[in-house]
Fold this protein.
Amino acid sequence: MNDHRPCGRCAGARTLSHDAFIAVDGTAYPARSERCYACTGQGSFASPDADAIIAAIKGRKGLRSKRPEDPRAYYVWRMARFHGGADVTMPVCAGLEIAGDPWRAELDQLADLVAKRVFGTDLAAAHRWGLALGHLDRTLPGLPPSAYPCGPVADRDKPEEERIELL
């Protein structure tokens, strides 16, 4: 099945329009239209190919250590690492990679399944951040060390471009 859904950024218009404005310093910027960056001007996204995503993120012993190139594969890989406890720093870059993708909910479901399969849980980050933000009032046993306060936040496979989060 190869369903399509309209781009969440341009709503299927294929372009993004920007109104004219004058900046604080007095510089005038004219109105302009440009190709939608989210869907690359296609106007829609095809349904995710779960088999291809799994193949792109699979490693010898679980998940690959290097970031996948494909934005959807990267999103699933990063979110699985987040939920599974391999890297519980906020996955901001992952969300940016799939901006406008109307299949995000399905990609999230796939990431949860991958986290459970590879790491044995999809609750590590939710537990750690739930405690930190005051949404949980008790500690749940049996989660990886990264799920608890003062536990490690990332393994050695954190992508280089995301390591600034560790400083």
Remarks:
- The chain has a mean pLDDT of 93.
- The longest strand covers residues 15-18.
